[in-house]
Structure formats: C-alpha cells, structure tokens
Amino acid sequence: MDLERYRIAWSRNAIQKQLLDDQEKNRAQQDEGTVKERPGRGSSMTRFSWHTATSPLPSPVAWVYGGWWIRAHLVQSSGTVTLAVITQLEPITVIFTVPEDSLGPVATRLQKKAKLTVDAFDRTAQTKIASGTLLTLDNQIDTTTGTVKARSLFANKNDALFPNQFVNVRLLVNTLQGVTLVPASAVQQNGSASFV
Predict the structure, then answer these.
(1) How many helices and strands (H and E) does the chain possess?
(2) What is the side-by-side order of every strand in the sheet holding 168-172?
(3) CB-hemisphere CA count at 13 Å for 89?
(4) Is residue 115 part of a domain?
(5) In a 3-state reduction of DSSP, which class is residue 169?
C-alpha cells in the first residue's frame, strides 16, 4: 500500500524518483522476504517448542507458560530483555563492607589462611539466620564510604538466605584468651581516659 502511494506521488511530481526507488527496492522487497521467511522459521520454532529448557543450577526460575514465544537475546530500543535470571542458592554468598580502620586485622588473618566465621542476622540483628566463612576482600577501598567489600560463603542448605535479602553481618576476626570482660555500661569517661 505504501509503495502504491509512492508511485502515485511520483506520477504527480510530488516526490523524487530516488524516494520511489528506495521504497520499491528496499522496503517492499524486504517485507516480501520477511513474509517468505516466516514459514521456515515457524517450523523450526515448532520443533523447538517440544524441548525443555532447564537450569544448570537447582534454583527457582520464573515460570514460562505454554504458547509463549521465547528468544534468548531479544533486543529492544531500551536494551536487552532478560528471559530469566538463574541465581545459585546453595551455596550462596553474602557481600558486606568492612570499615577501613578494621581492614588491617582482617587482611592479616586472611593472609595467614585463617577461616574467619561470618554470622548473618535478620534485619533487627537479633535472630541468627546462618553461619558461613569469609572468602575474600575487595582489592580497593571505596573512598566515598571508607569501607572495603568482603564476600562470605554460606552453605544455605535450608534456603534461609535469599538473593538480595538484607542481613546484618558479624565477622569474628580474633578470639582473645584470658582477658577480663566488663559490661559497656560500667566503663566511665574522665576526659580522654576510661576507667571502671
């Protein structure tokens, strides 16, 4: 229909011949090619529809319903559309930050190949969710926050931790032996000196 409109416009000297040629050779023939290609592509899609796509990990994936046409790399003007995100749950990692001032003792213990215990607590920091170990520290300090990112590994056999869940983390760096402990409320300040 567009091609016919261009022909009429050209016959009335309303457009240049080049515009008519472009419409005739490029757009119309491309559309014809697309129509001729569809039956072949449809049969391959039909064969594919009888296959099952599975995740390489035992992880929950968003449901895909029968009759949906699925393409792995669908690109739109806004970017790539993701079909499904597969996230490993067992084991799972938790990323948290360590203050720059505490980095020295943590890095020293990691260099000595010590297994540092990491406990994940709920949002209120009252209930312990899981225990894991520290894997690694990032290789640079974030200058905006004065912290370095740390990654810890949790077995997560009971699926207590979930991707993007907010948790409070406690990292055990050293255990001191033979020291006297007092409640924080018992410590008093006298200028720059502390006393009990």
Answers:
(1) 4, 9
(2) 92-99, 147-154, 128-137, 117-121, 168-172
(3) 15
(4) yes
(5) strand
* Residue 133, token pair as written in the block: 């170990």
Q: Which two tokens stand for residue 102?
A: 């505490």
Measure the CA–CA gap between 101 and 111, rounded to whole angstroms: 17
In a domain, 47, yes or no: yes
Which one is predicted more confidently, 27 or 124? 124
Burial 153-171 (b: 16+ CB within 10 A, else e): ebebeeeebeeeeebbbeb
Domain that residue 132 falls in: 92-176
Number of structural domains (the chain) is: 2
pLDDT (mean) for 103-113:
91
All residues at 6 or more sequence positions from 136 whose CB lies less than 8 Å from its CB, including other chains: 110, 150, 151
* Per-residue model confidence (pLDDT) at position 150: 93
Residue 77 included in any domain: no
What is the domain-level CATH number for residue 142? 2.40.30.170
| Domain-located, residue 185 | no
Rounded to whole angstroms, the Cα distance separating 160 from 6 reads: 65
Q: Of 85-94, 106-115, 184-193, which gets the smallest average pLDDT?
A: 85-94
What was the pLDDT predicted at 168? 94
